[in-house]
Specification:
The chain is α/β, with parallel strands linked by helices. 43% of the residues lie in helices and 18% in strands. The protein folds into two domains: 196 residues, NAD(P)-binding Rossmann-like Domain (Rossmann fold, 3-Layer(aba) Sandwich), CATH 3.40.50; 92 residues, Alpha-Beta Complex (UDP-galactose 4-epimerase, domain 1). It has a six-stranded parallel β-sheet, with helices on both faces. A three-stranded parallel β-sheet has the order 6-9-13. It has a three-stranded mixed β-sheet with strand order 10-12-14. Strand 2, helix 2 and strand 3 form a beta-alpha-beta unit. Helix 5 packs parallel to helix 6 and helix 7 packs parallel to helix 9. The radius of gyration is 19 Å and the shape is globular. The structure holds serine. The site of serine (SER) has 11 residues, from loops.
Length: 320
Amino acid sequence: MVVAAGNRILVTGALGQIGTELVEALRARFGTDTVVASDVRDLPNHPVVIDGPYRHLSVIDADAFDTVIVEENIGLVYHLAALLSATAEKNPELAERINIGGLVTVLEAARKHHLRVYAPSSIAVFGPDSPNHAPQVAPLNPTTVYGRTKVTGERLAMNYWRQYGVDIRGIRYPGLISYKAPAGGGTTDYAVDIFHAALKDGHYDCFVRADTRLPMMYMDDAIRATISLMDAPAESLGESRAGYNVAGISFTAAELADAVAARVPDFTCDFKPDVRQGYADSWPDSIDDELARQEWGWRAEYDLDALCDAMITGIQLSSI
Ligand code: SER
């Protein structure tokens, strides 16, 4: 049975780092009741749960997912539920079930119910054989479990677009830096943790080397990119629609520590690489986002100074 697409929005993984802010932005734009948040976690006091419609939902339960789509009259899904790199490496089978199996749940529902879908990819799709300044079209041979699930996700998405006409879009997010909800289980989390540690303890033990350079982005830019990609006319999007490169800021861990030290008197940082160094080393230093600029007008706004100012002010205000 084909059910016509509804007019409400479902966000999976809505209690996570991105979901928390995406739900807030979507509710501000489309009205609180239009945006149904969902997550597998039970966090009854989370603002996303308190402020509007919420469904407890596992993306690997396809029947439950279908029921929510129909009951809530959903027409567009922002599918954010996933395990990040460090967690995925510890639980490869669970990562495949959630990152790939969960996406199949969403794509199948999209095929049946004519949904539009946003499903994020990651800089982790690139592996050591990609150029350090990663082009849009490059060999995708990641060495991490997480990266492999994201490459598979981009390919699955393109299949559903080509075979069934599912309007699916995605962005290869850089490391995302924000303060409203904790990052969890990722390799780029040091770029978030450093701010909290600096303001609380005046010191941070960073789990990658000082010279580690990765593509990063402030969350406001990531949310703007996400919503503007979904706003773009379908005919302007080409063969990279399931995983656009978007660049924000590229800096080393030492440059970040220096920028924090310039704002937090007496801050010190030691560099003590752990297993996550290997994941970081397999990813590019920076990203070429020319295609996203051409096809849907993308341009980042936050540089390192603006990001540091926003993080420090944000953490200080939210702890008052
Ligand atoms: N931020 C993610 C991670 O570190 C990469 O997409 O796992």
